[in-house]
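Session log. Operator J.P. requested a structure for one protein chain; no other inputs attached. Running the standard single-chain path with C-alpha coordinate output.
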Amino acid sequence: MNRFELFSLIYFWLSRFYKNTTDDRVINQLSEMNPFLWDDIGSADPAVYDDYCAFIGDRKITVENSLDIAKGYVQIIDYADITEAFLNVDHEQWEKGCREYLSADHKGADDSK
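Structure written below.
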Protein backbone atom coordinates (compact mmCIF):
# COMPACT_ATOMS: atom_id res chain seq x y z
CA MET A 1 0.00 0.00 0.00
CA ASN A 2 1.37 3.41 -0.85
CA ARG A 3 0.84 6.58 1.14
CA PHE A 4 -1.75 8.03 -1.24
CA GLU A 5 -3.83 4.87 -1.00
CA LEU A 6 -3.78 5.10 2.80
CA PHE A 7 -4.63 8.80 2.66
CA SER A 8 -7.61 7.97 0.44
CA LEU A 9 -8.74 5.23 2.82
CA ILE A 10 -8.52 7.61 5.77
CA TYR A 11 -10.58 10.13 3.81
CA PHE A 12 -13.20 7.48 2.93
CA TRP A 13 -13.39 6.35 6.56
CA LEU A 14 -13.80 9.88 7.88
CA SER A 15 -16.34 10.81 5.20
CA ARG A 16 -18.44 7.79 6.08
CA PHE A 17 -18.16 8.34 9.83
CA TYR A 18 -19.07 12.02 9.59
CA LYS A 19 -21.54 11.81 6.70
CA ASN A 20 -24.32 13.45 8.74
CA THR A 21 -22.24 15.95 10.66
CA THR A 22 -23.12 19.62 10.88
CA ASP A 23 -19.77 20.52 12.46
CA ASP A 24 -18.27 23.14 10.14
CA ARG A 25 -14.72 22.35 11.25
CA VAL A 26 -15.11 18.67 10.35
CA ILE A 27 -16.79 19.54 7.05
CA ASN A 28 -13.96 21.93 6.20
CA GLN A 29 -11.32 19.37 7.16
CA LEU A 30 -12.90 16.77 4.90
CA SER A 31 -13.16 19.29 2.08
CA GLU A 32 -9.48 20.16 2.41
CA MET A 33 -8.51 16.47 2.58
CA ASN A 34 -10.46 15.46 -0.53
CA PRO A 35 -7.98 13.41 -2.58
CA PHE A 36 -10.26 13.25 -5.63
CA LEU A 37 -10.80 16.92 -6.46
CA TRP A 38 -7.71 17.21 -8.68
CA ASP A 39 -6.18 14.77 -11.14
CA ASP A 40 -2.80 14.68 -9.41
CA ILE A 41 -1.84 12.80 -6.27
CA GLY A 42 -2.63 14.98 -3.28
CA SER A 43 -5.53 16.69 -1.57
CA ALA A 44 -7.85 19.59 -2.36
CA ASP A 45 -5.62 21.75 -0.17
CA PRO A 46 -2.08 20.64 -1.07
CA ALA A 47 -0.79 21.58 2.40
CA VAL A 48 -2.96 18.86 3.97
CA TYR A 49 -1.36 16.13 1.88
CA ASP A 50 2.09 17.63 2.41
CA ASP A 51 1.58 17.47 6.20
CA TYR A 52 0.36 13.89 5.89
CA CYS A 53 3.43 12.92 3.83
CA ALA A 54 5.69 14.54 6.41
CA PHE A 55 3.94 12.47 9.09
CA ILE A 56 4.42 9.26 7.05
CA GLY A 57 8.07 9.95 6.31
CA ASP A 58 9.88 6.78 5.20
CA ARG A 59 7.50 4.48 7.02
CA LYS A 60 6.51 1.33 5.17
CA ILE A 61 2.73 1.04 4.97
CA THR A 62 1.05 -2.36 4.91
CA VAL A 63 -2.56 -3.41 5.25
CA GLU A 64 -1.66 -4.81 8.66
CA ASN A 65 -0.14 -1.59 10.07
CA SER A 66 -2.31 0.91 8.18
CA LEU A 67 -4.93 1.29 10.91
CA ASP A 68 -2.32 2.22 13.51
CA ILE A 69 -0.79 4.73 11.10
CA ALA A 70 -4.23 6.18 10.33
CA LYS A 71 -4.96 6.57 14.04
CA GLY A 72 -1.64 8.34 14.52
CA TYR A 73 -2.27 10.68 11.62
CA VAL A 74 -5.72 11.85 12.77
CA GLN A 75 -4.24 12.64 16.18
CA ILE A 76 -1.92 15.24 14.68
CA ILE A 77 -4.63 17.12 12.77
CA ASP A 78 -4.93 20.43 14.60
CA TYR A 79 -7.85 21.92 12.74
CA ALA A 80 -10.68 19.57 13.72
CA ASP A 81 -10.85 16.83 16.33
CA ILE A 82 -11.68 13.85 14.20
CA THR A 83 -10.03 11.20 16.35
CA GLU A 84 -13.36 9.77 17.48
CA ALA A 85 -13.81 8.23 14.03
CA PHE A 86 -10.96 5.84 14.79
CA LEU A 87 -11.66 5.06 18.45
CA ASN A 88 -13.52 1.78 18.02
CA VAL A 89 -12.48 0.52 14.62
CA ASP A 90 -12.56 -3.24 14.20
CA HIS A 91 -9.12 -4.19 12.87
CA GLU A 92 -10.49 -7.03 10.72
CA GLN A 93 -13.16 -4.77 9.22
CA TRP A 94 -10.53 -2.12 8.42
CA GLU A 95 -8.22 -4.67 6.78
CA LYS A 96 -11.11 -6.14 4.77
CA GLY A 97 -11.99 -2.66 3.49
CA CYS A 98 -8.34 -1.99 2.63
CA ARG A 99 -8.05 -5.21 0.65
CA GLU A 100 -11.29 -4.53 -1.23
CA TYR A 101 -10.15 -1.01 -2.12
CA LEU A 102 -6.69 -2.12 -3.18
CA SER A 103 -8.06 -4.95 -5.36
CA ALA A 104 -10.21 -2.56 -7.42
CA ASP A 105 -9.07 0.06 -9.91
CA HIS A 106 -8.37 3.27 -8.03
CA LYS A 107 -6.53 6.57 -8.27
CA GLY A 108 -2.96 6.36 -7.05
CA ALA A 109 -2.52 2.63 -7.56
CA ASP A 110 0.55 3.29 -9.67
CA ASP A 111 2.15 5.74 -7.24
CA SER A 112 5.32 4.15 -5.91
CA LYS A 113 5.47 6.26 -2.74
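Operator note: The two ends are 9 Å apart (CA to CA).
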